[in-house]
Amino acid sequence: MTFRIVHTEWSDGWGGQERRILAEMIEMLARGHHVWLATRADAQLATRAKAAGIPVLVFPFSGKFDLRTIIPLAAFCRTNAVGILNTHSGIDAWIGGFASLLARCHLVRTRHLNLPLHRRWYNFVHYLADHTVTCGEVMRENLVKHCGFPESQVTSIPTGVDLKSFKARRNRESVRCELGLDPHHFAVLMVGVIRAVKRHEVALRAFSVLHKQLPNARLLLAGEGPMRQGMEELAQSLGLQDAVQFLGHREDIPDLMSAADCLLLTSRSEGVPQVLTQGLYCGIPTVATAVGGVPEVILHEKTGLLVPAEDVNGITAALLRLHSDQALRIRLAATGKAHVAEKFSLEAMANATERLYENIEATH
């Protein structure tokens, strides 16, 4: 069965959510489906989608009742016999909901955040979708058990890693040399937008304790964000200016993962973070906070080490343990890679998405 799919995205940023959308569109296009992206003019996703050969529809998306977007989007869906309209953010969930009603096409809502959705009369958008997709099982359970979503209308489809292309292009030694890392340095890598929910402050405070015990430890922070200046000032105040590198936005994440000795995630809220599935597939031992869907990827003591959110001492202890136990690092790396290959591949994500679309079109 061939599908005609429009994805909508209000965000103009570039993070895990946008990366998943792009990967899904590219894979579905490669499988012979017709795919379009509807987004704002300045969206980074638009530029990357065009480069991948995906047609981009530009609309204002200026608010949830924006008729300048709703009406032409609905007209496009009718004219092009679109069967699935798949929304991804708050504003475009409303716009896509109204457009799908006008176009009489099926509405799928992908929920990327592990936050509650309150089904109330004033939030009637939550009743419009034929089906809601979450990026993890914990997120699905929250919507069903605590937010009133019918169990039959919510499916967990974890974000998949492209096992063919997500791999280091340069060898470990050359990347470490570029980063100024000596062979004896213990490099901790953290990848993510520098914003409050990622809790870079917790990471820096934990690393400060670690560095006092391991002067050869180094912290690599890959990513940009609104809190970067504040975190740079915090690192300076902690005396870590020579031990912490703010790398900014990077396109060579697999290379960085190959160069680091362990991966760190300190978020206070997550769905199923792509950086964890990617890191495990790259074979990097990982310490992560046990929030949201993280425990679906990091099985404690099997594929990584879990610690409570905000637990500075717990994070430090876990990092010290990885540093001192090479056998543990090797074991976690091997089981983590196998876990991702089995459960979190791009192929598995696309297969599940196709099955969902088939079921929607067959039963509605």
Automatic annotation (TrEMBL):
Chain segments annotated as coiled-coil in the UniProt record: none
Q: Which organism is it from?
A: Rhodocyclus gracilis
InterPro entries found in the cross-reference section: Glyco_trans_1, Glyco_trans_4-like_N
Ranges for domain Glycosyl transferase family come to 177-337
Signal sequence, start to end: none
Query: Where would I find the Glycosyltransferase subfamily 4-like N-terminal domain in this sequence?
Result: 14-164
Q: Which Pfam families match?
A: Glyco_transf_4, Glycos_transf_1
Q: Report what the protein is called.
A: Glycosyltransferase family 4 protein
